[in-house]
Design a protein that fits this description.
The protein is of the alpha/beta class. It folds into 3 domains: 102 residues, Rossmann fold (3-Layer(aba) Sandwich); 97 residues, Rossmann fold; 80 residues, NadA-like (Rossmann fold). It has a 4-stranded parallel beta sheet with strand order 2-1-3-4, with helices on both faces. It has a 4-stranded parallel beta sheet with strand order 6-5-7-8. Helix 1 packs parallel to helix 13 and helix 3 crosses helix 14. The mean pLDDT is 97. Bound molecules: 1,3-dihydroxyacetonephosphate and iron/sulfur cluster (SF4). The site of iron/sulfur cluster has 12 residues, from loops. 1,3-dihydroxyacetonephosphate (13P) binds next to loops.
């Protein structure tokens, strides 16, 4: 592995490339990454980089977002099959139907959506700024898509806004049941539960802290507790166990794995940089419209991300 890591680091330098890695990636990818974090942090880093090539160790919509933010750079996704099941739950036609059903209401899309969908929404959000973004619209009603769980969670925090949600969800987080949570809590009494807002409301209402992947990692960093129950994708738990060997982490269930996120291997990253594949392109007109939706979010999130 060391040899492969060295080869990637050398290629990165030779080609003036930057590697952005989401926290759900296989943890060994951190060895070659310049930035590791949640969706908001990575889109902020993409918008600021001076590198010529951005390699996104993540899923398709993330690389697409980087391309929209940096249309003149080469953006690479190491494994072209790394998609997001939630982002694929809504296409342009479904979005138009949703907007037609509820006309004249501002539309907020989760960053986990395609460029086409972003191009027809007013503003984008991530799990770490969703409340702030929806609140910024100062609207009585808001359409929120694709994630109904994140939408519900936002609504719960805003007294004056009705959030009308599309029927999408992340299959990994949505699959966590209340029985899973109660069983683990029973076996680990008085241990704090940290959950991602993509989980169902019945789960987040049981949590001591709800936040993005980075939010959960920061909570652990700033807490004096020695043990935590974690309800999010396993990549976060892998990193927590690596970074805090003196602390204990109980994952709600072992199969909380996003297969798409795990498709990128170090070998794929090497091949991707070496061959400059798979290059992500976005239609210019769609890209310009989607850029407005993303930039509005970045502007509002400039001074700190967290809700
Ligand atoms: P965050 O990166 O905002 O925590 O979202 C998690 C996720 O599901 C990314 O696909
Ligand atoms: Fe999509 Fe869920 Fe995987 Fe994130 S964890 S990329 S939301 S399927």
């Amino acid at each position: 592995m060391k040899e492969l890591v060295d080869k990637i680091i050398k290629l990165k330098k030779d080609k003036n490339a930057v590697i952005l890695a989401h926290c759900y990636q296989n943890a060994e990818i951190d060895e070659v990454a310049d930035f590791v974090g949640d969706s908001l942090y990575l889109s902020q880093m993409a918008s600021k980089t001076n590198a010529k090539i951005i390699l996104f160790a993540g899923v398709y919509f993330m690389a697409q977002t980087a391309k929209i933010l940096c249309p003149d750079k080469k953006v690479l996704l190491p494994n072209i099959n790394a998609g997001c099941e939630m982002a694929d739950m809504i296409n342009l036609e479904q979005l138009k139907d949703f907007k037609h059903k509820y006309p004249n209401i501002p539309t907020v899309c989760y960053i986990n959506s395609t460029a086409e969908v972003k191009s027809e929404c007013d503003i984008c959000c991530t799990s770490s700024n969703a409340i702030k973004i929806v609140d910024s619209l100062k609207s009585e009603k808001v359409l929120f898509l694709p994630d109904k769980n994140l939408g519900r969670w936002v609504e719960k925090h805003l007294a004056n806004t009705t959030v009308i949600t599309y029927d999408g969800y992340c299959p990994i987080h949505h699959n966590i049941t209340i029985e899973d949570v109660l069983n683990v809590k029973r076996a680990n009494p008085n241990i704090k539960l940290l959950a991602h807002p993509e989980c169902q409301e019945v789960i987040t209402s049981q949590a001591d802290f709800v936040g993005s992947t980075t939010g959960i990692m920061n909570f652990v960093k700033n807490s004096s507790d020695k043990k935590f129950i974690i309800a999010t994708e396993k990549g976060v738990v892998d990193r927590l166990r690596r970074d805090y060997p003196q602390k204990e982490f109980v994952i709600i269930k072992e199969n909380l794995v996003c297969r798409s996120m795990k498709l990128n291997s170090l070998q794929d990253i090497y091949n991707s940089l070496n061959n400059e594949t798979y290059e992500i392109e976005v239609n210019r007109e769609i890209s310009q419209k989607a850029l407005k939706c993303i930039e509005r979010m970045l502007d509002i999130s400039k001074n700190g991300a967290a809700n």
